[in-house]
Specification:
Layout lengths: L3 E4 L7 H17 L3 E4 L6 H9 L2 E4 L10 E4 L6 H9 L3 E4 L3 H15 L3 E5 L5 H9 L4 E4 L2 H6 L8 E5 L5 H14 L13 H14 L4 E5 L5 H12 L4 E4 L15 E6 L5 H12 L4 E4 L13 H10 L1
Helix pairs in contact: 1-11, 4-5, 8-9
Length: 314
């Protein structure tokens, strides 16, 4: 029987997700429905369905957007080719790319312009990685694992630099970087790892929690990279962990033999989903408490295109 539910802190929405979701909400208020969104604005099914119910139309490609319409680019970033396509379709664009992803894109362009070969540490197929690759496709080599880092080949005649996807495992990325530095001692990198503050903080919070719990539940959708990494962190420490989209996905058999359960959520998961989980455990007699809080005070301005349009409409 579960006696305690221990909440990790920090958890849930990061500044980039808050900015992206508010961007779509404000665009709907300004332009009315429909507002088109290329890809999922953030990787959470509940957020997407909520915005869809309010008039957002999610599309996989700009070919699905009527000429002259308004389209929001997701928090994960886009390749320059997508911007050119949008211009050709005379779309009104609002770029909700997380500023921390934009920083990685800027690094990729600068390194490429300086003649560097760039090792991008990330996951193939992830929208953020596709956008970054698009910034300098002839200069970037993708590395996904320690094994790939051990065998990757790079030109010897150009300077070598690495950059990283923002939502990776801190520990796994450190291992990959260590291999690259051993194999290529002159490889350069960013002053700080590109893994975002929220991803790092949520992983550290799980590390602080796992020794005190018998099981960790992570609220998040299956296409959320940072949510999956929280599961990985717990399992790497020897604590069973499961990803759940919401309380309906909870399998009560996981709780057999557990007295203390930990709960956290990915950076794109709304806090209301955590509240639903807490209510479920409270209804079954569990005491709910929160670990010591790490304060996050990061905030990002809304996209300049949206702010300018709102001023014009006022």
């Amino acid at each position: 029987m579960v006696k305690r539910l221990l909440l990790a802190s920090p958890r849930g929405y990061c500044a980039g997700v808050e900015r992206a979701v508010e961007t779509v909400e404000r665009a709907l208020a300004l332009y009315g429905s429909p507002v088109y969104v290329r890809k999922q604005i953030v990787h959470n099914s509940h957020v997407v369905e909520d915005l869809r119910s309010r008039g957002a139309v999610f599309v996989e490609s700009l070919a699905e957007v009527p000429e002259g319409s308004t389209v929001v680019f997701s928090a994960h970033g886009i390749a320059p080719a997508v911007r050119r396509e949008a211009a050709g379709l005379r779309l009104t664009t609002i770029d909700a790319t997380c500023p921390l992803v934009t920083k990685v894109h800027t690094q990729a362009r600068r390194y490429a312009e300086a003649g560097h070969t760039i090792v991008l540490i990330g996951h193939a197929g992830h929208e953020e990685v596709e956008g970054t690759l698009g910034e300098a496709p002839d200069s970037i080599v993708l590395v996904q694992s320690v094994e790939e880092a051990e065998r990757v080949g790079v030109p010897q005649e150009t300077p070598l630099t690495y950059i990283t996807q923002t939502t990776l495992s801190v520990d796994e990325t450190s291992e990959i970087v260590a291999v690259l530095r051993r194999r290529f001692p002159r490889i350069a990198g960013p002053a700080r790892e590109d893994i975002c503050y929220a991803t790092s903080n949520r992983q550290w919070a799980v590390k602080e929690l796992v020794d005190a719990v018998d099981l960790l539940l992570v609220v998040g959708s299956r296409n959320s990279s940072n949510s999956l990494r929280l599961v990985d962190v717990a399992r790497a420490a020897g604590t069973p962990a499961h990803l759940v989209d919401d309380v309906r996905a909870l399998d009560e058999s996981w709780l057999d033999g557990c007295e203390t359960v930990g709960l956290t959520s990915g950076a794109s998961a709304p806090e209301r989903l955590v509240a639903d989980m807490c209510a479920w455990f409270k209804a079954r007699g569990a005491e709910v408490s929160e670990q010591a809080t790490v304060h996050e005070d990061v905030s990002f301005k809304l996209p300049v295109e949206l702010r300018r349009a709102e001023r014009t409409a006022a």
